[in-house]
Every structure is written in structure tokens, then in C-alpha cells.
Amino acid sequence: MLDSFAVSNLISENLSLKGRILVSQIPSARNHLATLLEAMRENRVVTITYCGFNKSKSHQFPIEPYCVKLFENRWYVLAHNIHYNDYRIYGLDRIEDLEITTDTFKLPKDFSASDYFSNYYGIISDSNIKPERIVIRAYRDHIPYMNSLPLHHSQRLLEDNGEYADFELFLAPTFDFIMRLLSAGAMIEVISPLSLRKTLKGWVSDMYNLYKND
Q1: Which of the residues 40, 93, 138, 153 could staple to 142 if both were Cys, CB 3.0 to 4.6 A apart?
Q2: Model pTM?
Q3: Are 4 and 12 a contacting pair, CB within 8 Å?
């Protein structure tokens, strides 16, 4: 957040360069982020009308907004779903309507947003996927990228011989983490665990089948 404010202040101080400073657009912040932050300040329950991707119709229900998180140019809210009595993630770009109610809630004293996401790469949190030791090998040209922008706070360098470098991470290999690994293509390789390596192999095989007849 401090980084975001610092960049925002820099841009404000350099309006004469507005045509030469390019930033990514985040459409999900336009409609509901300010209202959600207002509700979070006052610990207010909000009623949202939500339609998830691949869903045919929307549903309206109350949530207790605990925190918001920006991930890959989309804003998400982690909330306590009152009806199901559990934590759930909602994408702001899938919220059709949002209204602050007069009802209030108490944020659990032991709740920590950073702790909640500490074992995950992005916004997918699945208690059925346990954190584990993962070793990733980055090949020559990708080594400085891994060093300068770690995939996870647990990342540490195990070995660097110039041709490749091995990195250790400890996190839950959720879907968004797997997608991140695939985005690097042949520049990285999963060394362990074998289960994750097989998962990546399956995705690569499916991708190959899409193009093999060209």
C-alpha cells in the first residue's frame, strides 16, 4: 500500500509528464472499492449482488468485509459469508451491486490479512491444498527475474551455477500458482515435489495437443 501511495504521489507531482507515464488500468476499482473501504472502516455488513464467472444468474447476500487485495490487476475482497459461516473471496469485477447496511460486525482479534494469505501465492486459498516445500529451477536468462521479484516471501536461493539456479519455496500449490509457473514457459522447471511436476506436465501436454497439428 505504501508503494502504491508513493507511486500515486509521484504521478501527482509530475502531471506535466502524464502522457509519458503509463500504468495498468484496474477496472474493478472503479465501482465498489471506495464503498467497501468505507464499510471496512466502520465494520459494516454489506449486501452484494454477485455473479461469478460461468454462472447463469446473480445472487444477493450479506458479507462482512475483512480485507481487500489487489492481484493481477483485479481487486478482491476477503469476507466472512454470514450464510455459510466461512471465509470467501469475491472479485470486485463480479459484484453487480453493493450496499452498506446498518448492521455491524466485530473483526476477530486474531485475524491478520497477511497471515491468512501467507501460505498462498495469490488470492486462491484452499484448505484442502496444504503448504509444502517446492523447488523450482530457473534457467540462465530467467535467474535475475526470480532474484529481483520473488514468487513468494518464502523464496530462497539454494544454488546458482550460472547455467541455472534452484529456488526453494514453501506454499500451497494452488491453481493461480500453477498458472504463474506455466506463464514462464521453458524458462523454469519444477524439480519437486513430483506431484506438482506431474501437474505441470499434464498442462504442458494439453497445450501441446492444441498446436500439434499446425
Answers
A1: 138
A2: 0.88
A3: no
